[in-house]
Amino acid sequence: MIWYFEIQDLIDEWEPEPLVPVLTDFQKQELERTPIIIGQAGLKSKAVDGRERLNFSSFNFLGIMNQESTKEKAIEALRKYGVGTCGPPGFYGTLDVHLELEETIAKFLGTEAAIIYSQGFSCISSVIPAFSKRGDIIVADEGVNFAIQKGIQISRSHIRWFKHNDMEDLERVLKEVQAERKKKKLPLTRQFIIVEGVYSNSGSICNLPRLLELKNEYKYRLMVEESMSVGVLGANGRGISEHFNIPACEIDMIIATMSNALASSGGFCAGSKEICEHQRLSGLAYTFSAALPAMLAVAAIEGIKFAESNPQAFNQLAQNSKSMHTALVKAANGLPLRIDGEPGSPIFHVRLTAPSGNRDDDERFLQEIVDWAAKDGILLTRAKYVINQELLPNDPSIRVSVSAGFTKRDVERVANVIRDGARKAFKNRRL
């Protein structure tokens, strides 16, 4: 009876968050001025004002967003299969091109098998709870993206965070978990380390060799989210494993969206046959979502074919990434800006070295730079976060995406435009 009244008191005191969060004036203004593209998006995109601008805001890493061969194949698939499947994979939503895409992904990455999902965001947020349940242990990098955070949350596992890309801190956490289990004589559970190949919120590249050493020493399974590294890193774009010359089978699960470098949609998980087959009944976003439209599956296959037949694209992307890093660091010199991202990363973040403490003010300041760039013929975007749901919110930033389709002159130009826009914004702030 006492227990009942204690629970009832907690229920009476609990005030749930409103379903619709209150928006600030700045957020309302943002919704009203959503950027709109007319026609095809690509390396150059035309906005509603009719002007064509260089697009450094899209994840068009290989520059194949408007590849003619892909469009032709997609049109053929549209005429043969129709617009959509209108059913999940297990309910007559599976098409022959879906199986072909899964085989193509596995062969490209060098894994036993792969499974495709119809949405990129829900892919990783479904894979995590398909394997890690209540009572299991997840050790995750505190810099992981929002989709990973949601998957971790849904799993209801015991969560431990380690400092972003800090292998010494990861080892400290693994030792603490091991010591705690021995002290409390806890039973063995499933254990997972979750990281990104290239972190979308920082542009950092994970230390895969050290991660594998630690996961083998402490008996963990390793999940690597590679949305920003598959089709980017390595001599043939096979991702973080090729970048470090390590067999992909050393990673338990490789998860990525197909909407970035492959210029399609949906996501995939690659690994052993057992790993992939388990998800066909336990991956909720796979089991209960309509299957990927055939034309998008075909587009992804064409994206992989491009990667396999054009290795020079990855060399060009790597050169552009290095040039962008050098140009941005040079442009930020003398300004209170910092550049997050490594030379081999396809994305960079321009952040304030000393945030004001008022997030809206900082976002508004960075938006001035974005607006200045748009006037000067460059499309940029601020990184967007769901602040009231982010577990570990990042500082506001301008995100710059690199593509193999740009020239060195294009890359240097965008850095100079950011520099000029920042100077103008800082001058306005002082007035």
Automatic annotation (TrEMBL):
Gene3D superfamilies: Aspartate Aminotransferase, domain 1, Type I PLP-dependent aspartate aminotransferase-like (Major domain). GO terms for molecular function: pyridoxal phosphate binding; serine C-palmitoyltransferase activity. One of its GO terms (biological process) is ceramide biosynthetic process. Keywords: Acyltransferase, Lipid metabolism, Pyridoxal phosphate, Sphingolipid metabolism, Transferase. This is serine C-palmitoyltransferase. Residues 55-418 form the Aminotransferase class I/classII large domain. Pathway: Lipid metabolism; sphingolipid metabolism; Sphingolipid metabolism. PANTHER family: CLASS II AMINOTRANSFERASE/8-AMINO-7-OXONONANOATE SYNTHASE, SERINE PALMITOYLTRANSFERASE 1. Transmembrane segments: none annotated. InterPro entries: Aminotransferase_I/II_large, AON_synthase_class-II, PyrdxlP-dep_Trfase, PyrdxlP-dep_Trfase_major, PyrdxlP-dep_Trfase_small. The gene is LCB1. Its EC number is 2.3.1.50. The lineage of its organism: Eukaryota, Fungi, Fungi incertae sedis, Chytridiomycota, Chytridiomycota incertae sedis.
